[in-house]
Amino acid sequence: xxxxxxxxxxxxxxxxxxxxxxxxEGDVKITMSKLEHPPVVAAGMPAVPVGGxxxxxxxxxxxxxxxxxxxxxxxxxxxxxxxYSAAGPDIPAYVRVGDRIKxxxxxxxxxxxxxxxxxxxxFDCEIEAVLVSNEQKVEYGQPLFRVKKI
Length: 150
Description:
The chain has one helix at residues 3-15; strands spanning 20-25, 28-33, 48-49, 62-64, 73-76, 81-84, 100-101, 106-112, 115-120, 125-130, 137-138, 143-149. A hairpin with a 2-residue loop joins strand 8 and strand 9. Strands 5-12-10-7 form a 4-stranded antiparallel β-sheet, with no helix packed on it. Strands 9-8-6-11 form a 4-stranded antiparallel β-sheet, with no helix packed on it. 9% of the residues lie in helices and 37% in strands. By secondary structure, the chain is mainly β.
C-alpha cells in the first residue's frame, strides 16, 4: 500500500463520523482511531514521555504534566490500545488508588496489535485515581491515572 492511499484513508476518516476504522490489504492491516479526548496539558507545559516498551517507530506519548507541586499530574497512554490493569484475569492489578509507586514500576499493560506493552512510570508518585476500566480501548495521550508526585 502506498502513502497516497494511506493519506486518502486518513482524510476519509477525518471527514466522516467514524471514530475507528480498520483496513486490510494482503498482509497489511491498518487501524485508525480518532482522538476523542485531546491529551491533557496543563498551563501550556510540555508533555513528558512515559517509560515502557512501545512498538517500533512509535512516537513517545505524554506521561505527566509536571508543574507546581499542587498541580494535578497524569500518566497517559503512549499508544492506542486496550488497557489491562493486570497481567491476567486472576492476578491482582499492578496498582490501585492510594498505592505509592516507584520510578520504573509497571502500572498497566496496553495491548496494541497483539503485543502486550508494559507501561511504566517515570517518577515516584501516588495513584490518586484510575481513570479507565479494565479492557477499555484507549487513545494516544488519553489519561490513564491521576497521580500525585512524591
